[in-house]
Amino acid sequence: MSWTVITEKGPFMLPANLKSVRVESIREMAPQVFIIEFKKFFNFEAGQIISLSLSEHLEPRMYSIASGERDNNIQVLFNVVNDGHLTPALSCLKPGDAIWSSPGFGKFTGTCGEAWWIAQGTGIAPFASMFRSGQSASKTLIHGGRHADSFYFSDEFGPVLNDHYVKCCTKEDLPGGFRGRVTDYLEQLSALSPDPLYYLCGSSEMVVESRDILIKRGVPFRKIVGEIYF
Amino acid sequence: MVKERLFGKVPEEVAEICRELEMPGYAAAQIVDWLYKKRILSIDDMTNLAVRYRDQLKEKYEVRLYPPSKVEVSADGTKKYLYQSGNKKFVESAYIPDGDRATLCVSSQVGCKMGCLFCMTGKQGFQGNLTAGEIVNQIHSLPERDQLTSVVYMGMGEPFDNLENVLRSIEILTAEWGYAWSPRRITVSTIGIIPAMQAFLERSQANLAVSLHTPFEEERKMLMPVEQVYPLPEVLKTVRSWDFGRQRRISFEYILFKNLNDTPRHVKELARLLNGLRCRINLIRFHPIPDTPLEASDDQAVQVFKDALNQKGILTTIRASRGEDIWAACGLLSTREMTRK
């Protein structure tokens, strides 16, 4: 998740808790989508976000943590925004380079109970963190992406979630997958239980549209929790 | 070649343009005066500039003021203006006359990213930030501009997701070289993006309004996804840390939803949260939007809620519902126009 915080610089605007850390690894998961990893220096709850920057003097952006609570490293999944001020440079980092990170924060945290995780693109990150933190029981994961390589961490999700893991691919037919958008998938379901919690993470359009569909299909709005990446 | 817009530029930028075009130093002040003090529509109207300088300017720049493309008039005098901002993109401004006062509610973005459950603008998705010129144009091109007593940034979009353009528009409205308004005539409303809110408090003198809508975090999460990132206690901590002085106002917007946030439990928690803060709560009746699961509290419930808060010592007012016959909820008119085109 990223958020345009501010553009004007000033010491009062920058989080005081950014700490310099070294990049452990960075790899391209799909064209223009990267996962960057550094040593964990704080404890967090699965689903939380961090502020990242290339310098303590530059405006940070926010991203969801993709690693599990007990992992030694923090992983962040991001796609390169061509005119973005951070991600093009972030994607060029090498192991040993310095970045600045805050501790985890935010309230989009998981549940041990029954829930649907509904994500688009890199919005999968908080659910990957929840999954890797032992919260996979009673979960259904619906993930939307354009191509076959857009389903990050599918090698982890598939064997555990089985039929409760649905890949919604807009540009390709995938074996066992759904051809279309996440919202198309939700629309064509015959029934939706009002009992689970429904977590949504993705663009504002996807979150708002999915929320509207869930509500129309009888899910109480109190059961829907959305995180929008900005 | 697409020409650059002059309207919305501040004196330093106009001076830079003049330097580039090798115009005399005093030309910048003249241009700024034409842009904001006088009601010109084109560079040709800048008659105290030599013709050759006007011609030079016209090669790269234009004033680019837009009149509203549509207006809807309510029986109660409220007018909703539609401004086009790019192909198939529309923003709304609401002109609200009230006795000897008149308020204009302006937009800061086309669409919105914030996804609040009760908001129609969010259903359009986000289509872009307005420039400072486009924000001020909503005021400058308003037929009732001279009647305005105040401006509120409560139209489409989250102002603090477009902070620099909002701050620049406020500068144009309040600077001596601009409209020379008192900043107390301006209120900016936010859902609580804390870093930008801090920057706004530091860099402007305008009033602040925070969309609160429920004092309970779990409930606010359902209504406003921003709560996941910037929780209400942190927003209030930031507000409390700021010295608003005697003139600058902080207020809280509170839309009342039936059987959701209009109970005595909410009154009690609001009183606790806002205890000791010199502020006002504006209660707002909910204008239902298509497919919403939310219902408006009835008039009696709104009155009871207001009285209960006032009894707890929190100055509380009810915002009069205006323009209900002209798609008054923000975002409805532009959404209709967008889908029609």
In short:
With 230 residues, chain A is an alpha/beta fold. Chain A has helices spanning 87-90, 125-132, 154-161, 182-188, 204-216; strands spanning 19-30, 33-39, 49-53, 61-64, 73-79, 98-101, 115-120, 139-145, 165-169, 178-179, 197-202, 224-228.
Q: Averaging pLDDT over every residue of chain A, what do you get?
A: 91
Q: Could you say what the CATH topology of the largest domain in chain B is called?
A: TIM Barrel
Distance between the termini of chain B: 26 Å
Largest sheet of chain A: 6 strands, antiparallel
What is the CATH H-level superfamily of the largest domain in chain B?
Answer: Aldolase class I
C-alpha geometry of chain B: globular
Mean pLDDT level of chain B: 93
Number of DSSP helices of chain B?
11
Q: What class would the helix/strand composition of chain A place it in? A: alpha/beta
How many distinct folded domains of chain B?
2
Description:
- The complex is a heterodimer of chains A (about 230) and B (about 350).
- Chain A has about 230 residues and is of the alpha/beta class.
- Chain A folds into two domains: about 80 residues, Elongation Factor Tu (Ef-tu), domain 3 (Beta Barrel); about 110 residues, Nucleotide-binding domain of ferredoxin-NADP reductase (FNR) module (Rossmann fold).
- Chain A has five helices and twelve strands.
- In chain A, the strands form two sheets. Chain A has a six-stranded antiparallel β-sheet with strand order 4-3-6-1-2-5, with no helix packed on it.
- The radius of gyration of chain A is 17 Å and the shape is globular.
- The mean pLDDT of chain B is about 95.
- Chain B is globular, with a radius of gyration of 21 Å.
- The two termini of chain B are about 25 Å apart.
- With about 350 residues, chain B is α/β, with parallel strands linked by helices.
- The interface between A and B is medium-sized, with 34 and 31 residues.
